[in-house]
Write a structure and sequence with these properties.
Elements: H1 2-32, H2 37-60, H3 62-67, E1 71-75, E2 78-81, H4 82-108, H5 113-119, H6 122-147, H7 151-178, H8 180-201, H9 208-228
Helix pairs in contact: 1-2, 1-6, 1-7, 1-8, 2-6, 2-7, 4-6, 4-8, 7-8, 8-9
């Protein structure tokens, strides 16, 4: 009976983790484009695999994770917690990276990426992936604790979600790489996620439904535009 009672929370948690994982896949895919072709899959698999190790490790430190919700200090009436500091740092990092990539893609063009590509190393990009993994992991674990009590449910959800991400990462990365307009859209998505992390760190709650609905609507518009405006065909 206990197993049956945990099925719905487990499935709900898997869906939630998968949605959060898509943001991670997009970020990893955009960074992977800076590497030679033979290293791109390696960065994706290492990034996703290490995110699983990180989340499983953090689950073992669940008591410490929950203490991150305690107030450390107060600024202008805003209680700053350990979780808030991590979300603020992660959100600002994501905003910086997204804004920088949008500038390179939209203003400087693809040729401007050549200097960055020369400087970018597998290790540097993997470190950037792990920074964002840490932010998303702590956020998702605190959310998971509020939904379920059994640790095995959380461990199962993490493992299943990582399996889904490993399967979905290459098709998503290939799609983004083939369509430059979707790459800009994906960067805008990451910019929105970064802003929502900063807002959450300051205890300003932005309903996740609004964020993902706006993303889905923008994605649908881009798909319609891609289907109706063919290369060489002037738009209306």
């Amino acid at each position: 009976m206990q197993l049956a009672d945990n099925i719905v929370p487990l499935l709900t948690l898997i869906v939630l983790e998968t949605i959060l994982g898509i943001d991670n896949i997009i970020f990893i895919s955009i960074l992977a484009d800076k590497l030679p072709d033979e290293q791109r899959d390696r960065l994706r698999y290492w990034g996703i695999g290490l995110s699983m190790v990180m989340r499983l490790g953090l689950l073992a430190l669940i008591a410490w994770i929950m203490e991150l919700d305690q107030t450390l200090f107060v600024i202008s009436g805003i209680a700053i917690t350990g979780k808030g500091l991590i979300l603020l740092a992660g959100g600002l990092f994501l905003i910086y990276k997204s804004t920088k990539e949008i500038y390179h893609k939209a203003e400087l063009g693809d040729d401007a990426n050549a200097p960055d590509t020369a400087k970018a190393t597998f290790r540097d990009l993997l470190i950037q992936v792990l920074i964002l993994d840490l932010v998303f992991s702590i956020d998702s674990i605190i959310t998971a604790v509020g939904m379920v009590e059994q640790l095995w449910v959380m461990y199962t959800a993490v493992i299943v979600t990582v399996g889904i991400m490993l399967v979905a990462s290459k098709p998503i990365a290939s799609f983004i790489s083939r369509h430059p307009s979707f790459k800009i859209l994906a960067l805008c998505f990451l910019l929105i996620i970064g802003m929502s992390l900063v807002a959450e760190g300051l205890h300003v709650e932005i309903p996740k439904g609004y964020i993902y609905f706006s993303m889905a609507f923008a994605f649908l518009v881009d798909v319609i535009q891609m289907k109706t405006v063919r290369p060489g065909k002037p738009g209306n």
